[in-house]
Design goal:
The protein is of the alpha+beta class. The protein has a domain of 159 residues. It is 33% helix and 12% strand. It has a five-stranded antiparallel beta sheet with strand order 6-5-4-1-7, with no helix packed on it. A two-stranded antiparallel sheet has the order 2-3. A hairpin with a 5-residue loop joins strand 5 and strand 6. Helix 6 packs antiparallel against helix 7. The longest helix is centred in the C-terminal third of the chain and has 19 residues. It is globular, with a radius of gyration of 34 Å.
Length: 247
């Protein structure tokens, strides 16, 4: 009888404890809530701002008309900088031109891809991209006139001291050689619509035939210089230059 008395409570009427496990509906809601929180916590990537080819001076350029800084930042490292340069040098564009006061050697200090020195010749024409005031720490230093970041006709950027440049237009302004093979196809086709350029391009092909990239000879050099001269003359005279794409 003792065994029976002990067994009765186990089989008897005490109600079972409420289950602490969530019901099926509750279990499906919690993971969804957690996933939603994870999505909300993920940082949103900033939208890429399109950079357009400029037509007006930067508002913060001061007295010198320069392209906007956002555009210039892309220009010096752009793969099609040579094509962009011809559009910037086109007749009627507002950008400040300056001219080399002497032969000099310069580097690009604007953050562009070019790291090797460049030789610039007396009277070479360049476009001003930015002016860098001299850092004198507030002291008055004789001869500290600052520096300019400039663009050459070949699309290369360079940084020059202010005393290496002048504003007055020389009798025959110079230019950096035009890298014909690096110009966009659309631009090349437009330029070849000019009879003189088409003639000089044909002469260059003939003179440089059989030479690989980087190789040259006297005849090829003369032909390339002649083609550059024809392209620069066309652009300065107001020949149409298609607006390039900005990377």
């Amino acid at each position: 009888m003792l065994v029976l008395a002990l067994a009765l409570p186990a089989c008897g009427g005490s109600s079972p404890k409420e289950s602490t496990l969530p019901e099926a509906g509750e279990a499906s809601e919690k993971p969804a809530s957690s996933a939603s929180a994870g999505v909300e916590a993920a940082p949103s990537s900033p939208a890429k701002v399109a950079v357009e080819f400029p037509t007006a001076c930067a508002k913060d350029g001061g007295e010198v008309c320069v392209p906007p800084a956002a555009f210039t930042k892309h220009l010096c490292s752009a793969p099609n900088a040579s094509s962009i340069a011809l559009s910037l040098f086109a007749k009627g564009t507002p950008w400040q031109r300056m001219y080399l006061a002497r032969n000099t050697e310069a580097w690009d200090a604007s953050g562009g891809a070019g790291s090797t020195s460049q030789k610039l010749s007396f009277d070479e024409e360049v476009i001003v991209l930015a002016f860098r005031p001299a850092n004198t720490g507030g002291m008055v230093v004789s001869g500290a006139s600052g520096a300019y970041d400039v663009l050459r006709w070949d699309g290369m950027c360079a940084s020059l001291n202010a005393d290496e440049l002048r504003k007055w237009y020389p009798p025959e302004p110079g230019y950096a050689p035009i890298p014909w093979r690096r110009l966009d196809d659309e631009l090349q086709q437009k330029l070849l619509g000019d009879g003189r350029i088409a003639l000089k391009e044909g002469e260059m092909k003939k003179a440089c035939k059989g030479l690989s990239r980087g190789q040259t000879n006297a005849a090829c050099d003369r032909a390339q210089k002649s083609l550059s001269k024809a392209v620069v003359y066309y652009v300065r005279a107001g020949g149409e230059v298609p607006t390039p794409k900005v990377p």
